[in-house]
């Protein structure tokens, strides 16, 4: 056989064999990615989840800004004051035929209706020295107001109007329960604009900013334990409401910290624990019945806590006891650590002032004391600044409103 033919036949046979092998050889099967299986939920679980979501949604609506604003805006009023200027007149004006009448100074602020019969709480500095006070409600009705009483020590005053019908009012909330970081609303009349609502959070509590001036000759001894917020508060907001997300009154907006006179991120409100007690006293008695424990304190620091074997750096050390006070009549000693009063923890002087502001002379408190490696309770009867256990005064207003002595 021709060698060339032999080689050609061999090559052709090899090619045919390779083709047949490729055709009949089993090919590997490709595995496509399988989707992850979803967790199964029974129908009952679906309904439970839906109900839970409905509850969460209802709670959100209850605690939303819209609810709080709607629950409070009609109870916040616009307060306008007018005062005859006391400045001395220029005698040359009269000789030259110019008018000699003193100008009338006008100002405005806010107030909060706390009783449906027409009692309104505001700041003392809003109405101080005013000859005439007008109150405008959110329904545009205006009434002339009279001053029931004022307390410069806390910058709180109470007005009364006579609308003839029940008014919307704000329920008091507890400023003791307010937490730092909690959402709040400021409701008032900044820059003479009515019914304005702003939102912010509680930045701090028990702030003493040395705002109020002491006047010992008039018996004015400042009590400052402000709630600090970053809600926008401007001139005209003074006397307005600070409310929580439930629409409850937790403070009266009083001051701002600013270099320009307008909002700069720091606003301060008198806490409702003080507002409620002061306003009740002014409404019922025309004056504030203020109780004192009779101690001077300073906060416990880390070194003192270590020396006294305190579990925490908390409480206040008693540095002095006022003679004739309730503390002087008790077993309290200088050097004792005050941990709490009636269950309210005390860590500095503003907190002590805020706590004492809710009591009247003659009432008793339970003071939690740390001494000689142990804690115990002492009951102390409170007195007034003069060391007297004053009797409760008779109400000066007829009992037509809802607040009663507490």
Number of helices: 8
Strand order of the largest sheet: 5-4-1-2-3-7-6
Question: How many distinct beta strands?
Answer: 19
Largest sheet: 7 strands, antiparallel
User: Remind me, CATH topology of the largest domain?
Assistant: Thrombin, subunit H
Task: Set down the secondary structure blueprint.
Layout: H1 3-24, H2 43-62, H3 65-72, E1 76-84, H4 91-95, E2 104-115, E3 119-123, H5 124-127, E4 132-136, E5 142-144, E6 146-151, E7 156-160, E8 183-188, E9 196-207, E10 226-229, E11 241-243, E12 249-256, E13 267-271, H6 272-285, E14 295-299, H7 302-307, E15 316-321, E16 337-341, E17 344-345, H8 349-356, E18 364-371, E19 374-381
Antiparallel strand pairs: 1-2, 1-4, 2-3, 3-7, 4-5, 6-7, 8-9, 8-11, 9-10, 10-13, 11-12, 12-13, 14-15, 15-16, 16-17, 16-18, 18-19
């Amino acid at each position: 056989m021709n060698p060339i033919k032999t080689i050609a036949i061999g090559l052709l046979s090899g090619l045919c064999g390779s083709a047949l092998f490729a055709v009949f050889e089993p090919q590997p099967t490709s595995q496509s990615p399988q989707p992850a299986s979803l967790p199964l939920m029974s129908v009952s679980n679906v309904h439970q989840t839906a109900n839970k979501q409905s509850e969460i949604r209802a709670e959100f609506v209850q605690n939303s800004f819209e609810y709080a604003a709607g629950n409070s805006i009609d109870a916040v009023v616009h307060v306008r004051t007018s005062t005859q200027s006391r400045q001395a007149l220029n005698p040359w004006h009269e000789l030259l035929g110019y008018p000699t009448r003193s100008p009338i100074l006008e100002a405005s602020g806010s107030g909060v209706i706390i009783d449906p019969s027409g009692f309104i709480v505001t700041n003392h500095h809003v109405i101080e020295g005013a000859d005439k006070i007008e109150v405008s409600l959110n329904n545009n009705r205006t009434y002339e107001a009279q001053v029931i009483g004022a307390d410069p020590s806390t910058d709180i005053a109470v007005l009364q109007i006579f609308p003839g019908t029940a008014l919307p009012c704000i329920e008091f909330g507890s400023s003791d329960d307010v937490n730092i970081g909690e959402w709040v609303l400021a409701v008032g009349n900044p820059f003479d604009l009515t019914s304005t609502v702003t939102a912010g959070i509680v930045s701090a509590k028990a702030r003493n900013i040395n705002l109020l001036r002491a006047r010992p000759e008039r018996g004015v001894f400042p009590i400052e334990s402000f709630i600090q917020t970053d809600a926008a508060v401007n001139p005209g907001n003074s006397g307005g409401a600070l409310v929580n997300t439930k629409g409850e009154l937790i403070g009266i907006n009083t001051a701002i910290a600013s270099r320009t006179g307008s909002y700069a991120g720091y606003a301060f409100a008198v806490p409702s624990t003080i507002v409620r007690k002061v306003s009740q006293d002014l409404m019922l008695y025309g004056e504030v019945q203020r109780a004192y424990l009779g101690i001077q304190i300073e906060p416990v620091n880390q070194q003192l806590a270590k020396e006294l074997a305190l579990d925490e750096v908390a409480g206040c050390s008693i540095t002095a006891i006022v003679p004739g006070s309730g503390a002087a009549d008790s077993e309290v000693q200088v050097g004792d650590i005050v941990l709490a009063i009636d269950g309210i923890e005390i860590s500095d002087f503003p907190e002590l002032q805020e706590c004492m502001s809710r009591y009247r002379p003659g009432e008793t408190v339970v003071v939690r004391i740390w001494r000689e490696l142990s804690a115990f309770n002492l009951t102390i009867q409170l007195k007034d600044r003069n060391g007297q256990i004053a009797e409760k005064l008779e109400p000066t207003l007829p009992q037509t409103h809802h607040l009663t002595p507490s």
